[in-house]
Design a protein that fits this description.
- This is Carboxymuconolactone decarboxylase family protein.
- InterPro entries: AhpD-like.
- The protein is an all-alpha fold.
- The chain contains eight helices and no strands.
Length: 189
């Protein structure tokens, strides 16, 4: 296997009518051209638009504080070793209030010992869900007590959505921008 981007940007002149319409709708909704995980997703225009709209809700409209959402995105990016997802969300997470030491522990594949109580709940929920494919009663109850039932569902959605994006970019081998920070170190399993 090589590191060659399997599904790079599609030249504008070769877009199908559906792809061109989806790219324009994406630009209208987000104010930017198709980027990152949406580049490979554009091969399925309707899926790309549905994914984009779900992402907008999960990032900006969920019941969770932005700091927790971004923290969970870093967890998912690390668990899937998704370099682009990490590179996009790491600075956003830090700006939202995730401590640099906490993010660094995640990058190294360690459970952070600098987490806030809310972050520890989100970490337990996310890692149980991603590793066990389920969440214990105790963790679920603690999350509902802290974030409500909508928060528990939104936390599930963030895990699933960013896993979808990570899987998509891992399959596509989406390339990192050359001017970005160094990639995540390999995750020892």
């Amino acid at each position: 296997m090589t590191d060659t981007d399997r599904l790079p940007e599609i030249p504008a002149e070769t877009l199908s009518a559906a792809q061109a319409a989806a790219a324009e709708a994406f630009r209208a909704e987000r104010g930017v051209p198709v980027f990152g995980p949406f580049v490979p997703l554009l091969r399925s225009p309707e899926l790309m638009l549905c994914a984009s709209r779900m992402g907008l809700y999960l990032r900006y409209g969920s019941a969770l504080p932005l700091r927790i959402s971004e923290f969970v995105i870093l967890i998912v990016a690390r668990l899937w070793s998704q370099q682009v997802e990490w590179q996009i969300h790491h600075p956003i997470a830090l700006k939202a209030g995730v401590a640099p030491e906490t993010a660094q522990a995640l990058a190294e594949g360690r459970r952070p010992d600098t987490m806030s109580a809310e972050e520890a709940l989100a970490y337990a929920f996310s890692t149980e869900l991603q590793h066990n494919r389920a969440v214990s009663d105790a963790t679920y109850a603690a999350v509902v007590a802290q974030f409500g039932e909508q928060g528990a569902i939104d936390l599930t959605g963030i895990n699933g959505y960013y896993a979808l994006l990570a899987m998509t970019m891992n399959v596509a081998r989406t390339a990192l921008p050359e001017d970005g920070p160094p990639p995540l170190p390999p995750l020892v399993r």
